[in-house]
Amino acid sequence: MKEDQLQAIESLAYTLTTRDRLDDAESLLRGVLAVSPRRAYPHHVLGVIARKRRDPATAAESLRRCLEIDPGSRSARLLLSECLFEVGERDAAIRTVEPLAEQPGNSPLHDRARVLLRTWSKLGLPSPDTP
Fold it and tell me: Is the pLDDT of residue 127 over 80?
């Protein structure tokens, strides 16, 4: 399959995700990964789908795969941090969001990262993932 075809399928899958046609989107993305397993974006969108299904643990797995392939994906990093927090891994969530919060910039993504880092850091509660 050609690159432009894969991108078109990924784009359609994202659109279906925004319209809550999660099963259809997931099916398309799994098909893309069957042909080209080292693509980051399908893993990212599968993470979004899992989160929409209220399954942050599965979402975190997909987002980790995305970041293994594309460590620079800021939106995947931000979403992963939120999923980690949701499953009780506060310290891991903080470690994940910190690089974004510390980057210069005033984008909504950076602003959200800073707010999350401040909020989670202020909780001061022992995290379940702290030894």
Answer: no
**Domain extent for 42:** 3-123
Q: Where are the alpha helices (DSSP H) in 19-107?
A: 22-35, 40-52, 56-69, 74-86, 90-102
The predicted-structure confidence for 35-77, as pLDDT tens digits, reads as follows: 999 999 999 999 999 999 999 999 999 999 999 999 999 999 9
In this structure, the chain runs to a length of: 131
In a domain, 17, yes or no: yes
Dist. CA 51–CA 36, nearest whole Å: 23
Q: Return d(Cα 42, Cα 36) in angstroms, integer.
A: 10
Q: Give me 123's structure tokens.
A: 């909780």
Number of domains into which the chain is organized = 1
The closest of 60, 52, 61, 53 to 78, measured between CA atoms, is: 60
